[in-house]
Amino acid sequence: MKIDTRFDTAATTLSTSNATDATLSGFQSLLATARQQLDEAISTATDNGLTGSTARKTSKTEDANAAAVKELRDYLNKTPEQRMREAILKEMGLTEEDVAKMPPEERTAVEAAIADKVRERLLAQAQEHVNAASGQLPLSML
Question: Which residues of 52-76 are buried (b: 16+ CB within 10 A; e: fewer)?
Fold first, then answer.
């Protein structure tokens, strides 16, 4: 039996690129959420006019900033696989807690559906990279 020990740079590049794409997309989403929370805090402070104290206005802004930073840190600490699974569960209208509460048969079916969706996404991303490397347009642009 022969063991192939060659390093597959294409697979490594693809994996790194997928992780970067997912991180950027998630970061942009978190940044938009943080901006919205900050805008709401500023709007509330402005609506209160001079009747509220500066300390209360600052506290609301600091709370919004702290929440946004925590959400961003939590997101960045997840692996690309965890982020993909979370996104698929969200598309299915489920959470990890929902899946944990399911009976074994139903949970097995949901886990299989998640695995299929992950496989489909990875294959689609791989095909896009192959097309890009060969100079072909992605199917979505045809």
Answer: eeeeebeebbeebeeebeeebeebe
Q: Taking Cα atoms as reference points, which of 138, 37, 18 lies closest to residue 87?
A: 18
Q: Contact at 8 Å (CB) between 113 and 92?
A: yes
Domain boundaries, the chain: 21-77, 80-134
Which letter, b or e, does each residue of 104-122 get, where b requires 16 or more Cβ atoms within 10 Å of its Cβ? eeeeeebeeebeebeeeee
Write out the chain in H/E/C secondary structure: CCCCCCCCHHHHHHHHHHHHHHHHHHHHHHHHHHHHHHHHHHHHHHHCCCCCCHHHHHHHHHHHHHHHHHHHHHHHCCCHHHHHHHHHHHHCCCCHHHHHHCCHHHHHHHHHHHHHHHHHHHHHHHHHHHHHHHCCCCHHHC
40-76 pLDDT, tens digit each = 777 776 665 544 555 566 778 888 888 888 888 888 8
- What are the backbone dihedrals phi and psi of residue 3, each rounded to the nearest 5 degrees, phi first? -105, 125
